[in-house]
Amino acid sequence: AGLVALELAVEEELLEVNPVRAKQLGEERRKGRAIAFVSDMYVPEGWLRRQLEIRGLMEDGDCLFCSSACGMTKRSGELFGKVLRETGRSADQVGRGVDHKDTDVAVPRGLGMGAEQVRETRLTRYEEILESFGVQTGGVTTAMAGMSRLIRLRDEAEHGQGGEGGGLGAVACGVAGPILSAYVLWVLRKAREDGL
Predict the structure, then answer these.
(1) Is 148 in contact with 179 (CB distance < 8 Å)?
(2) How does pLDDT run across 43-91, given as a tens digit for each residue?
(3) Given this model, what pLDDT does residue 186 score?
(4) What angle do CA 113, 36, 51 make, to 5 degrees?
(5) Following DSSP, what letter does each residue of the chain receive, concatenated?
(6) How far apart are CA 125 and CA 162, in angstroms?
(7) Is residue 78 within 8 Å of residue 72, measured between CB atoms?
(8) Of 72, 155, 84, 135, which Cα lies nearest the Cα of 113?
(9) What spatial distance separates the first Cα and last Cα of the chain, rounded to whole Å?
(10) Sorting pLDDT into bands at 50, 70 and 90, what band is 9?
């Protein structure tokens, strides 16, 4: 139980709201649409609910369906079936903005549900390159990829697709920032090796 509590504490500290998705969620609420969060996370449902509420994403009347609480998964389609049964909606009444092309798009579409993959929130190719070196850098490049993505999405949420300056912000945080950061890390490592 100690390790689980530690993991949840670290998760809670590092969680950031995806500003683009939060904006899209607000737009759905303004249209009067019912909101249901569907998660394959292994974390306790109560913990996930609290994180959504603390960050202003989950409101009264929203539903949360978490595989850790009900023993059903998105991949099997069972979790989506539970959503339909418990909300009283038919498959053609449900639209979803999702991230994972298989479990979040192919499976619900196979059940007749609307599902649209949200591509703008995924890592860019430069962020994926940074992420790919996470093990070798002790997580430094993973953190850099996450920071780059968050800054890019904040810019997009505030200024629209392409962000301020027609994508200049995305280039700055997605390409120039990581390259400059890598150079600075190299200089600092070299200085330490040379005893400076």
Answers:
(1) no
(2) 999 999 999 999 999 999 999 999 999 999 888 889 888 988 998 888 8
(3) 78
(4) 140
(5) -HHHHHHHHHHHHH----HHHHHHHHHHHHTT---EEEE---S-HHHHHHHHHHTT---TT-EEEEHHHHS--TTTSHHHHHHHHHHT--GGG---EES-IIIIIIHHHHTT---EE--TTSPPHHHHHHHHTTTTTTTHHHHHHHHHHHHHHHHHHHH-TTTTTTTHHHHIIIIIHHHHHHHHHHHHHHHHHTT-
(6) 16
(7) yes
(8) 84
(9) 44
(10) very high
Determine the residue type at 20. Answer: V
- Other CB atoms within a 10 A radius of the CB of residue 88 amount to 8
Task: Say which residue the tokens 């996930």 belong to.
Answer: 48
